[in-house]
Amino acid sequence: MTQIFTSFLAALMALSTLLAVPALAAGSSDGSSTLSSASYDEAKAMVDEGNFVAALPNLIALTKADAKNADAWNLLGFTYRKLGQLADSDAAYLAVLSINPDHLGALEYQGELFITTGKLDEAKANLAKLKALCGTCEQAQDLEAALKAAGA
Asked: Burial letters for 107-142: b for 16+ Cβ neighbours within 10 Å, e otherwise?
């Protein structure tokens, strides 16, 4: 009976841990989101559909509600960049990296912003940091490909 109870308790704890972790796209998250995953997930879905204009007010609200949500800041920076609001994008990536200096998605996206703004040395520095953190992870590969496409 004790073994059954122990097994049940272990399974229950594992299930509660899985349910507490938000489902997020690879490269976009560091797991710092403390808001309802539905709010983040709704904004992420809009961004994934390319509906940046609709996602923007939701992301601004998310970052105001939880200023330490690195994932929301990262998605906000990405959205601003896609809308051509590069100064706002830069500020959002700086916010992410002040919360989590090793946020893989932010390092990739900020590197892509650096390429867009002609700051190739800064983009290469982000790539070097990514490689140190994760080797040949998707974020490092994507930034490296973007640098090569830019002729760097």
From this structure: bbbbbbbbbeeebeeebbebbebbbeebeeeebbbb
C-beta separation of 140 from 111 below 8 A: no
Residue 84 is classified by DSSP as: T
Question: CATH number of the domain at 27-149, please?
Answer: 1.25.40.10
Q: Give the number of C-alpha atoms closer than 13 A to the C-alpha of residue 140, restricted to the C-beta side.
A: 13
Residue (of 144, 93, 96) closest to 123 by Cα position: 144
Q: What does each of the 152 residues of the chain score in pLDDT, given as a tens digit?
A: 444 433 333 333 333 333 333 333 334 454 444 444 558 999 999 999 999 999 999 999 999 999 999 999 999 999 999 999 999 999 999 999 999 999 999 999 999 999 999 999 999 999 999 999 999 999 999 999 999 999 98
If one counts every other C-beta atom within 10 angstroms of the C-beta of residue 98, the result is 11
Angle at 77 between CA 131 and CA 86, to 5 degrees: 105
DSSP for 10-25, written as a single string: HHHHHHHHHHHSPP--
Q: 65: which 2 tokens?
A: 């509600």
